[in-house]
């Protein structure tokens, strides 16, 4: 990581970052309602750990220390809730991880421009900071360093809600891989897997705090008929252009900048499997998060945990197809056809406009790719810098520094779960407002937004 701390990229004239203080935005309801709920759930999780088995009545000095550390973290998270709700200033980080300098320099440069509080600072910054701060509370301990507060209570328990969908998609993949398909059929199948991958982004645990895991299957798309019904919900649909781009790739490299673990990760793996099977990719690079991020984002631990959990489930119910699918995926990883990569840049405060500069090493690497697939809403926000864009802004303008001539073709697959939306035609946002006033944020609408390589 560069030790030159860049300030955040300047905002283009006429735009400003979304902030919690903007009352009619999703940013406001997130800061006011959703973030305190997420933090409170962390406190619950840790309290449960504390009252379980050995920690309730510690019988060794190590357990006593572990219990004391958990109490300290609980107190610190409760303090965060208090400060957030009272719109207090954010405090610099105090741990010694390599990225601390970037966080503190960014916070200092924002503080130099105005009040550095939870509602006044850019929403993107404070929300990312929150997850980095939670990480800090754990790594500053002796006994909880490796603990992922979101893993057991949320990512892992929600897994059971998705297994039925996973079985169905695995059957579908087997069916299309064992048939001889003509060109049109190949195209249809690719199209389906891209759309499954898009709608896989609906099951995001930071938004579904109240959804019973048993209800998750109902939300997950696993059939072509289901996809057809959703076609009209794809408000920017560059599928044709994307498929054309993919058709031009043979034995190339595709990068997936992943979002959520669980069913979304599974839908990414299904697409990646098809790309390898169809001869498009001889290398698929999966980019995971370094730390627990936005509740359900995929870490490398989640990635491996998911493969293990699916295989365990497949064996338990005697689903040989699903079992052998996981074996195939392990084989692809072992052979280096699939690569799991973790770069610290993805969990820094920078928007993706700054990958070419602040993430120069990462950028040099992803420029070897023939296609970048950015999954999910947060990646979308980072791609377009979470600014209050007019919806008719061109994708090129909104991608800013990512429209560098060296940047590979890229696609953003996202169900809409936050305010920013660009690349809409004139009048489209107004039509959507009439059809569904919550279209920007309720996850019922999707975007497949493609940008080819910049022509020089
Ligand atoms: O990236 P994802 O998982 O699709 O969505 C992340 C999300 O739930 O969290 C943020 C608000 O907390 C929003 O960007 C979005 O709604």
UniProtKB/TrEMBL annotation:
Key word Hydrolase present: yes
Reported cofactor(s): Mn(2+); Ni(2+)
Chain ranges of the Damage-control phosphatase ARMT1-like metal-binding domain: 30-431
An annotated GO cellular component: nucleus
EC number(s) from the headed UniProt entry: 3.1.3.-
Molecular-function GO term, any one: metal ion binding
Signal sequence extent: none
Catalytic activity line of the entry: beta-D-fructose 6-phosphate = dihydroxyacetone + D-glyceraldehyde 3-phosphate; beta-D-fructose 1-phosphate + H2O = D-fructose + phosphate
Alphabetic keyword roster: Hydrolase, Manganese, Metal-binding
Any single biological process term in GO: DNA damage response
Family the UniProt entry places it in: Belongs to the damage-control phosphatase family. Sugar phosphate phosphatase III subfamily.
Function: Metal-dependent phosphatase that shows phosphatase activity against several substrates, including fructose-1-phosphate and fructose-6-phosphate. Its preference for fructose-1-phosphate, a strong glycating agent that causes DNA damage rather than a canonical yeast metabolite, suggests a damage-control function in hexose phosphate metabolism.
Domain remarks in the Swiss-Prot or TrEMBL record: Subfamily III proteins have a conserved RTxK motif about 40-50 residues from the C-terminus; the threonine may be replaced by serine or cysteine.
Name of the molecule in the record: Sugar phosphate phosphatase
Organism: Geranomyces variabilis
